[in-house]
Structure formats: structure tokens, C-alpha cells
Amino acid sequence: MPDEFSIAVDFVFESLKARQQTGSSLKAEFEALESLRQIRSETATLESPIASKVSVGSAAPPVVFAPQPVQPAQPTRFSANAVPVVQFPPLPSEVDDGGLQERLAALKVAVSACVQCPNLVSTRAQVVFGEGNPRADLMFVGEAPGPDEESEGRCFAGADGVLFDKILGAMGLSRDKVFLTTALKCRPDSPAGSVRARIPTPEELGRCLPYLAAQVALVKPKVIVALGAGAMRGLFGSTQTAAALRSRWHDLQGIPVMPTFHLNYLISNSGIGEKRKVWEDLLQVMERLGQEISEKQRNFFLKSG
After folding, report:
1. pTM score of the predicted model
2. Cβ-contact 283, 294 below 8 angstroms
3. What is the tally of structural domains in the chain?
4. pLDDT recorded at residue 89
């Protein structure tokens, strides 16, 4: 039996295709989404999927993610109990670029309607899908939305967003040149009175990773930057700190990934030495992408620079 994610994505894609062919109004889309809700209710007893299927009808080949077994329970640094290590779904070898905007739009509808984590659904204001250039060479992946991101409905907002935009500017880039997303699309619900944001559980990441895998498969970035240890947990199931992972390349099914510190870390540790560490990571990214790097850029955050 197909998993709920497959049904949702297939249904939305077919609905959008039908709408394009008939030139129908928004009424048809609302009816389609109402039918989607009915399908979801009928499949509510299914186990949370690790695999997903993205289809756009006969005009393009389907994007298929094969099932991946959850690994045996293992202890991690971010949980007091033994938890399953979630594996990133395999990426398809080929994805048709035709209708890329429509594919991402339909995927966003499916993600926004996701109810696989009842605790997140009950507290979220909205899902933060991601944004940017769908044909970007560079993708940034964070851990999960925070209050500012949830409020604005975009990745890296508030103080994090101000710093992020400065970093992009220093790289000679802007938000419309890259693609931004997170491993978890909903803000983690935190206990009342909690000061710090809650770390997503492996189960939550496992349910959300097919969405991230679909984004990676559609955008096809040449390089991914993982902002913080949480992003690396989502991409690789890693339990190591960002300090242990940064400054060296990691391979995600053929895509080079450079981990670096989270934006919050830089805000809390604003010394020039920590800024230089992040900048050195990003210089490697710029070199990997073949960007021209000026002498001024190479000397950013050096005490003598």
C-alpha cells in the first residue's frame, strides 16, 4: 500500500496538472485539497513513512525514493534514551527539470498539509517550506524553524536572518541566488517556560526527511552548507558537534556538504576568531563552486586584515 506522503504528493501534482489543462479556477484546487484531506484521514493508521514518491503525471518521469529501513536503536548525544538513527532517503539518479516551479509548489502544498507529527501540528502557526532559486548551485540547510521563522514563514529570519544576509553579501550572493530550507519544516514544540528551543527528535526528522530529499532532488544543488549540528543530524544522522564536523567535506549521495556553525552560535560567540572559522568554511564552498574570490574576501575576519 502506498504511504501517506506518496498519496499526498501524487494527488496534488495530478490536481495541478488537471487545473493547467482545463484552466479552472481556485474552486477546483480547493475541492482537490478537500479530497486530499479525506485520503489522509483514510490512511491515518499507516505508519509514518521513511520513503516517498513524487509524481507529475505522464509529462515527466516520477521521482521515487526507495524505502530505507530504520537502523537499530543506538544511543546519541542529544537524547537520554536509545533512539533510531534516521537515514537520508536515496536520491533518484535522474529528475526531469520540466515544470520545476510547479513541482516545488505542489510539494509545498503537500508539506503544508502534513499531519504526521500531531504534537507539532497542534502548536504550529505555519509550516516553513523554504525559499530561493529553484536552480541554485548552493543550498543552505538549517535544523528547524524558530519563532521568528514561523512568524514570518521564511527560513533564517529575525536576528539570524540579519546575520545570514550579511554572510551572503560577503560571499557576493543574495537570497534569490541560493535555496534555503531546514531539515524539519515545523517549529519544535517546547515545554511551557522553556528558554531554549527543543531539539527535533529522530522520529520527527525521519518523517520530514522525504520532503527535504525531494527538495534536494528537484533543486540539484552542486554544494550544500549545513548550518549547525542539527542540520547534520538531519542530513547524516550525525551526533557530533558542529566543531567536530566543520571545515571538511562530507558526501551526501554525490553532493558535497560543508558543515559550519549555526547562526545562533555566531550571535552568542561573536569574536573575530569564531567568525573567521565560519568564513574559512565558506571560502571552501566558494572555491568548490568556482567563484572568484578577491584578496579582500580572503582576508575577512583576520586580525591583520
Report:
1. 0.71
2. no
3. 1
4. 72
